[in-house]
Amino acid sequence: MKRSEREQDLSRRVISRRGLLLGGLQVGVAGTLFWRLRDMQLNQSEQYHLLAEENRINLRLLPPTRGLIVDRNGVMLAGNEQNYRVVIKRDDAGDIDLVLARLARLIPLSEEDIERARRDMLRNRPFVPVTVAERLSWEEISRVASNAPALPGVTPEMGLSRNYPLREDTAHVVGYVGPVSERDLEALEAPDPVLMIPRFQIGKSGVERMAEDRLRGRAGSQRVEVNSVGRVMRELDRVEGTPGGNVHLTLDARLQNYALERLHGHSAAAVVMDIESGDILALASGPSFDPNLFVRGISTTDFRGLLDNEYRPLVNKTVQGMYPPGSTFKMVTALAALDAGVTDGQERVFCPGHMDVSGNRFHCWKRGGHGRVNLVSALSESCDVYMYEMAQRCGIDKINEMSTRLGLGIRYDLPITSVASGLNPTREWKRNNRNSEWRIGDTVNASIGQGFVLTTPLQLAVMTARLASNKAILPRLMRDPAESALPEAASLDLRPEWLRLIRRGMSETVNDRRGTAYSSRVVADDQVMAGKTGTSQVFSITRAERDAGVRRQEDLPWNRRNHALFVNYAPVEAPRIAVSIVVEHGGGGSSTAAPIGRDIMLAALNGGVPPLSAYPAPQRNRIHSEQQEMQERLRKPEDMRISRA
């Protein structure tokens, strides 16, 4: 009995110790929790309030409105249009595949669209909105909005998208925009945060690319309250961004449209310049392409079609294309000879149709020869032998110096991509690039714009403007509408008597019956033009081809024919406009390029389709028929929308 009482007493003491230990632990845990709660509520309340707010409130970047690009008269060349789109956020969507599948039942989504959206979501942070579809109709965007509860993380939005209303007309100059790529970001030291927005678009070519910083603007921001599934409940705050600045170009949209249509059917380039200011009024490269295709996502088929086109529509031939200038270079050789004092321009050189130099025979284009010619007739009738003689007298160094003085071989600083410098060959250039010494035959070839000499259509227009003005005219593509008078260009300091000879030769090229461009003359007294034809050889007709019966350029495949060139300015008495034309594989300058150059010059002087009265009477019926056909392709005045920029 006593033992039993002792055991019970011992048991009670053990239970009491366990109870105290357990109770102590409970009190300790409760105290710790109480202390932690007190610390969180009193000492750290502000921090956790901020964290809660961050979970409830999202901060979003608002893309800025891109600046406009307009022509000299305010015609819209690049603008913005409303764009209904759908975006998705990965961290709010949950089951991405399920949400995208539901979305595909409401709006047209291809497998490619869905896969691209998946890639963009994985490439970006979970909270970054990714564009799934854009350019949706009002009905489509409404279906998405009405089904919002079944589409977590999906938000319908209205934004702006780039649009080029004149499509092909200014594609090579204005360029186009496209989504920011990894390569774009790698090229920047400190990328603008707005560039991280998926499918945000920046300039990829042309003015859009070169004036990107000015056109882009600065992003705004938006704070929105969201619920537990990421649905936007309300907007709390908005700070509007700074719109991009507008860009005013010197182009005349109507003249640009006319020039491009006049090149229709050719792989060609046309440049029109204001001789006084250097303003580029037209910079047409044909054929062209629709830049809107690139903004909206060009298909593989369409892109392959542009790449495979032998006329190279993606190349801006006006500034990228480098061509032997042919006989349009003869004014350079003639002026170099005058400047060197090796001729007074009046002496006559006999042309038998060829000249033998260092054991090689160099032919004149006129096999029977021109007989005795002076500087003026050598230019108007385009005698090669005369230039061979002058080149040997003055040498390549003088020719190179005059070529540079007239604006050739120079890369002009224009706000467009891929501007080429051409090539003014020198002794040193050949030594460094061809590992051989300069030869007299190289000088003879250069004298008629062949051999190593390469020029761009833009440079030929600059050369023509300088010959017409005796000023160091520089081409200009961007202008300030509020600008005062431009500073006058520096003088070239070419002697007036030299220029009188050159200009007379160019005038007789067009207006004398023996001139190579006589059939392209202008009969309107106040619009008479001066010019120079050129034909640059691409391939020679081989002996095998001659034996097979090939005698003419027309018998060769298109890509083996000569390039056709023409430069001109008008009016002769008071020059205002300079034009250069290059028609790739066009055959002859007088037959192909000169008529185009005349029409574009007249369009520039008359502000539209040239009047028939400017043409010789026997040509007017044909010209009228051509104008009627062309009229169907020209833009109507209502297409030229004026911006208030």
UniProtKB/TrEMBL annotation:
GO cellular component: plasma membrane
Basic and acidic residues composition-biased segments: 623-645
Membrane topology (UniProt): Single-pass membrane protein
GO biological process, one term: peptidoglycan biosynthetic process
Keyword Cell inner membrane: yes
Membrane-spanning residues: 20-37
Every Penicillin-binding protein transpeptidase domain range: 269-601
Protein location: Cell membrane; Membrane
UniProt KW keywords: Carboxypeptidase, Cell inner membrane, Cell membrane, Cell shape, Cell wall biogenesis/degradation, Hydrolase, Membrane, Peptidoglycan synthesis, Protease, Transferase, Transmembrane, Transmembrane helix
Residues annotated as domain Penicillin-binding protein dimerisation: 63-236
Cross-referenced PANTHER family: PEPTIDOGLYCAN D,D-TRANSPEPTIDASE, PEPTIDOGLYCAN D,D-TRANSPEPTIDASE MRDA
Protein name listed in UniProt: Peptidoglycan glycosyltransferase
Organism: Roseinatronobacter monicus
Lineage per the UniProt record: Bacteria, Pseudomonadati, Pseudomonadota, Alphaproteobacteria, Rhodobacterales
